[in-house]
Input
Amino acid sequence: MTKCLKCGGTDMAKGKIQRSCEEFFSDIIFGPENLRFLTVALQHGTKLEPESYACLTCGSVWSQTDANALRDFIRKHCKPAKDKKRKC
Output
């Protein structure tokens, strides 16, 4: 089971770290999986903090986003989770 590196929580959202648009200086965002078909949003995720971390032992990389904004984005733009393991 995947756990949060900071708080140990297990209510996780799987997704990708990506640019908010094709522009070179665009924001870096976390985009959760399972967006609803034809989702209309200015960004397809929530903005990441500029600071990030990497483990020199295992290679794990992480950053942080606003938890309230992420939950709100998932509630508005993602398909509901089918089980307790959150897929989006």
